Amino acid sequence: MDGKTFMLDTIIKNGTIVDGTGRLRYKADIGIQDGHIRIIGKIQDASAKHLIDASTLIIAPGFIDMHSHSDMSLFDDPGGESKAFQGVTTEVTGNCSYSAFPIAKDRKGDLGMGSMDWPVEWEWNDLDGWANALESKGISINIAPQLGQAALQVAVGAVEERPVTKDEMKEMQKLAEESIEQGAFALSTGLSLSPSGYMQTAEVSELMKVLSKYEGVFYVTHSRFGAGKHVSAIEEAVEIGKTASVPVHYSHLAIIARPDLGGWRQPEGLRGHGPEMLEVFENAKDNGMDITYDTYPFTAAGAGVDQLVPIWAQAGGTETYMQRLKTQTTRDAIRKEVAAGTGGVPPCFDTWVISDVESAKNQSLVGQSIAEIAKQRDVDPAEATLQLEEEERGAISAVVHGRAERDVEYFLSHPIGMIGSDGNAVSPSGSQSQKQIHPRFYGTYPRILGRYVRERSLISLETAIRKMTGMPAARLGMNDRGQVLEGFVADLVLFDQKKIIDHSTFDKPHQLSEGVQYLLVNGEHVISNGVHTQSRAGRVLRRSK
Description:
The protein is of the alpha/beta class. The chain has two domains: 62-299 and 403-480, TIM Barrel; 304-401, no CATH class. It is 29% helix and 19% strand.
């Protein structure tokens, strides 16, 4: 090349490339121009606006978070610091049946989910409108949107515990087609949540059949979970995928306590199902199904306290739910199920630690367990749960402890699995900064690279990077992201493998991870020399037609 005439935007020199394919790392320079990787090799005859010495750094594709809930949080925290400093360049949204579209004209802002309760003016009805609003605001990282089943149900008014009518199904399929035509990558369910869980297997299969018209569009599920029901939940996902003839992606694979293995609280009750669960995946793949899952590296989950409450009690929306709690006979029936854990969630109330409330009067409860709150109020934990739900009108969340480390490791290391945080992109100074959120918001990816790759050697660096990049990109059908290849979009993370680690804890969650020195999103520098540039280089990505 003629150094007198050839100019690049960025040159990265002497880095060690882990390219996202699983292949062994190698040393090379990278030249970036017009948002794309133009050269990989020894660059000698070119100059650039930006020159990065990566001699001590790993160069990898930007991480693609397969399971996020940043649909609305980026309006409030457009810099997305919690994810950017992990190396994330793309957030996959619309998970667990909740998406910010479609919105019926008379139901703006009414999606029935705490994760969407943001101080934003709802000015859209569809994916295009939401995407335009986000891009007008300006965001630092990309979003890959999925469509949520609950959003479809709310849009057509199918929020009661009853069969979906033929007209409602037809309208939901129509709305789903519109979202897919506008670029949605998948359709998600939340079958243990209201209202998604009111639809039975055959109804979900019928809804998902609309996806089969589009190559690569897949079914992603937050399953019907329950202690001791992990295998049957995966089997239902496989059945739906087979009936609808669509690929399947299973969200946040994990194990919760099983009463049939020694009780809710016995340590061994948290173990022993992993191989049996993965066998269902493996058998499905052997029979020709395109099936994958995501997981995250923590022994605690995050959930709304309403997940302790049977979903039949929540049918019809918030006002109807609140009214049921005021009717004593109905309240007694609900409390009985909460105490027994018959809804599928273990009633281990000392493991449910409050992380977020809406009301000022209950702010002091953040960081306390439901068991502690019950003792203070001199009521049983089930009654305390219902009191909290009533006081916060269902908008109260918790961090839930109780998973086994060896299960976490098993799911992280299996070849089918990829990584998803199940967290939002937020910032230490944004509106969420006073909330006791789950550390996964800030630490998922550095935790894997630091704890499970560097310290424990559970998986190789190449394998970990592939689970964070190449595999999610393939699942999403992205043919120009997720790998370090010439011609691909320059979504890149440069990090120090000797230093990368998470610092977020359950007590102090709003702490940025360490080790990411540079983050390029669509070729622009979002993090440079360890500092967020406030660049708004992100955009809403669309499924390839």
